[in-house]
């Protein structure tokens, strides 16, 4: 039943993400075609996860899980049901608890695709926050699982923190080449940061060009 | 009307065949021209129901075009976060404006954005309480609405005009709209082709360096001839008035184009978007229409309706 809810949810979102919003996508071919895989993205808005979901075919949607703050999305029975069975969120305990990675480990062991926002929070629009160590701890356990970086531009402006109706705006999305975990935590975090910096420059370069237009 | 649409498709196929088989393979812009023609095919397919479907489909589709153009404009221009609600209200104005056009409520159609939204949007913005960047924000938003929604919605109001008799038969609003879109785009293409073949002296080198006097004048002459030939068939215009209208479309099509170029250059972007492969954004294709649509409408409205 959950798989069905998930597909309906993803399908119902498509008019919003493609018509109300709309986006330009570069290097779609870098997206994973099947699990297990980790998709990481910068995070400014609730639209981020919905946009990422839109990049995958409906048939893959049931295998996609989105890492989400347990204290934010899993507050009561109703939201817990919706979060888990409709949106496909996996709860991550942000403070304390036993093994906060356990739910994500399960996703990857079941050959799922995991969406993870390594900044851990939405932060300020178009500013990349600190990469939290969680991604490294997770990736280190699965050194052969590809990590696919995606840069999302403009969604923080469409639906910033604290608002509920997205202003229609075109987003720009750039998918980077997959990479794998390294054994050193600091090196890994710097690497991820560099990858996102490069993707951001690539995305913005496509928008702003000094060369002259024809016609 | 139907004949004109078929003829246009035939023209497009001929242009495609010419570019594909006759243009030499080493011609630098061959690939670009082919992509562009292919996108033209999609645009024409999209426009087909605008000319032949019953109300309210043409109005909905044209409203969608305005929505895309306005969205592109809003995406490009820098904005303050506290103006979110003003933006959302501006979007609400799009279906309303096309409703006025659809039901033919001329008084409301003509003042809704220039008067009511001109008062409402800054009021909503000032309630956010921040004076910093206020003028820029309110001016930008209203200019965007005027060009992408108000101007373009004149296309939809053409459809609400009553039928008229001319020497060739009954003239419907769809036929007026067809000629407006055809002439504006033909003018763009004619200026492009004249410029590519003969262009030497740029008109506005800082705004749009590839627009040349040769392209501009060649395009205007071509458009005048086309309007004199087609105007009396598709509209109630006489040949003399048609020549004047052709001149206006040639000149203001160019001006609409360079105004949008100046806007894009000011912001620092090349294209307004990526929606139409080979053309850029929707706004890149509609730039001339934002100027020609209201002019064309008001000239016909003043003279015949």
Q: Could you give a quick summary of the protein structure above?
A:
With 215 residues, chain A is an alpha/beta fold. Helices cover 40% and strands 16% of the residues of chain A.
Strand order of the largest sheet of chain A: 1-7-6-2-5-3-4
Poorly predicted ranges of chain A (pLDDT <50, ≥5 residues)? Answer: 210-215
* Distance, first to last CA of chain B: 20 Å
Q: Tell me the total number of β-strands of chain B.
A: 2
Count, helices of chain B: 10
Beta-strand share of residues of chain B:
under 5%
Q: What's the number of helices of chain A?
A: 8
Estimate nothing, just give the exact number of structural domains of chain A. 1
SS content category of chain B: mainly alpha
pLDDT below 50 for ≥5 consecutive residues: which ranges of chain B?
A: none
Describe this structure in words.
The complex is a heterodimer of chains A (215) and B (305). Chain A has 8 helices and 7 strands, in the order αββαβααβαβαβαβα. Chain A is of the alpha/beta class. Chain A has a 7-stranded mixed β-sheet, sandwiched between helices. Chain A is globular and about 40 Å long. Chain B is mainly α and 305 residues long. Chain B has a domain at 55-160. Chain B has helices at residues 2-22, 30-52, 57-76, 84-103, 106-126, 134-158, 173-198, 213-234, 239-267, 282-304; strands spanning 164-166, 169-171. In chain B, strands 1-2 form a two-stranded antiparallel sheet. In chain B, a hairpin with a 2-residue loop joins strand 1 and strand 2. In chain B, helix 4 (84-103) packs antiparallel against helix 5 (106-126), helix 6 (134-158) packs across helix 10 and helix 9 runs antiparallel to helix 10 (282-304). The longest helix of chain B has 29 residues, at 239-267. Chain B starts with a helix and ends with a helix.
């Amino acid at each position: 039943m959950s798989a069905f809810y998930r597909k309906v949810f993803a399908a119902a979102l498509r008019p919003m993400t493609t018509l109300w919003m709309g986006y330009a996508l570069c290097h779609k071919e870098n997206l994973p075609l099947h699990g297990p895989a980790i998709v990481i993205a910068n995070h400014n808005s609730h639209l981020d996860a919905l946009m990422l979901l839109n990049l995958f075919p409906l048939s893959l949607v049931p295998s996609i899980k989105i890492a989400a703050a347990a204290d934010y999305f899993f507050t009561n029975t109703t939201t817990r049901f919706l979060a888990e069975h409709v949106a496909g969120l996996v709860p991550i305990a942000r403070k304390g608890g036993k093994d906060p990675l356990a739910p994500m480990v399960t996703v990857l062991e079941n050959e799922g695709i995991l969406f993870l926002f390594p900044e851990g929070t939405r932060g300020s629009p178009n500013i990349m926050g600190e990469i939290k160590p969680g991604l490294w701890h997770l990736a280190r356990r699965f050194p052969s699982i590809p990590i696919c970086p995606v840069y999302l531009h403009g969604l923080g402006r469409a639906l910033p923190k604290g608002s509920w109706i997205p202003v229609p705006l075109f987003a720009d999305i750039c998918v980077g080449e997959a990479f794998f975990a390294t054994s050193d935590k600091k090196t890994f975090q710097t690497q991820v940061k560099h990858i996102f910096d490069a993707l951001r420059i690539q995305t913005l370069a496509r928008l702003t060009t000094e060369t002259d237009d024809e016609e | 009307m139907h004949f004109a649409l078929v003829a246009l498709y035939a023209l497009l196929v001929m242009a495609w065949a010419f570019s594909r088989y006759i243009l030499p393979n080493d011609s630098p812009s061959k690939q670009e021209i082919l992509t562009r023609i292919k996108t033209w095919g999609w645009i024409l397919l999209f426009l087909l129901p605008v000319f032949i479907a019953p109300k309210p489909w043409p109005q909905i589709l044209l409203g969608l075009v305005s929505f895309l153009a306005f969205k592109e404009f809003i995406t490009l221009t820098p904005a303050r976060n506290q103006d979110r609600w003003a933006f959302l209200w501006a979007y609400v104005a799009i279906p309303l404006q096309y409703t006025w056009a659809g039901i033919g409520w001329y008084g409301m159609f003509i003042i809704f954005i220039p008067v009511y939204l001109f008062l409402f949007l800054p009021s909503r913005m000032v309630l956010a309480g921040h004076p910093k960047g206020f003028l820029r924000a309110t001016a930008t938003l209203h200019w965007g609405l005027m060009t992408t929604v108000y101007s373009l919605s004149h296309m939809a109001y053409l459809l609400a005009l009553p039928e008229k008799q001319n020497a060739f038969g009954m003239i419907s609003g769809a036929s007026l709209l067809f000629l407006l879109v055809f002439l504006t785009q033909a003018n763009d293409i004619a200026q492009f082709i004249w410029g590519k073949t003969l262009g030497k002296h740029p008109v506005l080198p800082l705004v749009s360096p590839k627009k040349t006097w040769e392209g501009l004048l060649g395009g205007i002459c071509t458009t005048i001839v086309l309007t004199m030939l087609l105007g009396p068939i598709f509209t109630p215009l006489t040949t003399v008035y048609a020549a004047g209208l052709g001149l206006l479309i040639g000149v203001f099509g160019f001006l609409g184009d360079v105004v949008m170029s100046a806007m894009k250059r000011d912001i620092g972007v090349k294209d307004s978007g990526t929606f139409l492969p080979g053309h850029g954004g929707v706004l890149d294709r509609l730039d001339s229409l934002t100027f020609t649509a209201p002019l064309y409408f008001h000239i016909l409205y003043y003279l015949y309706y």
